[in-house]
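User: Fold this; tokens only.

Assistant: Input:
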Amino acid sequence: MSNQSIAERHTVWQSRLAGSGTTLLLIGAIASGSLLGILDPDFGKALSEGTDQTLLSLVCLLFFEVQLRDFASGLANLRFIGIALTANFLLLPLIGYTIASIFMSGQPLLYTGLIIYFLAPCTDWFLSFTRMARGDTALGAALLPINMITQLLLYPVWLWIFTRHTGAVDFNSVPNILLQWFALPFVVAQISRSLLVRLLSDRVFSSLNSFIGRIIPVVTAALIFQLFALNVGTIAKHITAFGLIFAAILLFFISTFLLGDGLSRLFKLDYPRSTLLAMTTAARNAPLMLALTAIAIPDQPLVYAALIIGMLIEFPHLTALKHVLLSRRSD
């Protein structure tokens, strides 16, 4: 099955859900979780005892979507892959660190969540937005596993470089957490995917893959619901800082657009590849980072809140970016 057909498995319904639908879903999870936590804190606490199961489900679903065979396509496009990796894993971390330091220097936990949100490029829904903007989805599919594996390997490095001064992270526990919660589920998910590809027909497997893509935002919303039901009191005490987080994320998105546009002009990328670069630098991997951070940095709701705010702003931003890019397209 070609990389193009992989991208086309994202249905129209999924593409819509990846935009305004997902934003509404996440807002609903925040509102309902907060309401439950306020009205019945004991029930909210009991409900949140299943957070680990939700986290593991989300991680496995995200890893199931990754297709390692697409690495070959990436190696055949080393020039673009090199540009995207430089933007996502060198330039944007520096930009994100600068913005987070300016806006959240006096709030170490919110700073930590903000910097983690900035660091990781998306590995799922950016492909839907790339397709809707008529970008190069075949190359985007090849970029997906590269982004996923690179950010997992760099996660402890990023934490040490950017957050060691905050005191929010127990660095001794991070390697074991990555092994138990991410390396092993990644292997299991990839083995399961490989077996199902062989056992199921292309049509059935395509339907299964599309269903997983649709269910990921729902499981993410379930996790957010649990986190807010348990921690709404702590989060509410810092609600005045969320305006600064909103401003910082908007500035980051403006920076990603300018960076992608500048690199596309510098390297003379055609429209499909410049669109892909714009989407992969704009979209962040908030669901995986939320799951990873909730495990690596437990009992820190302010860190999670910063990540969740990023998710809420991101989907409208990607929708607007799609329209901007399409307006530039010449048929």
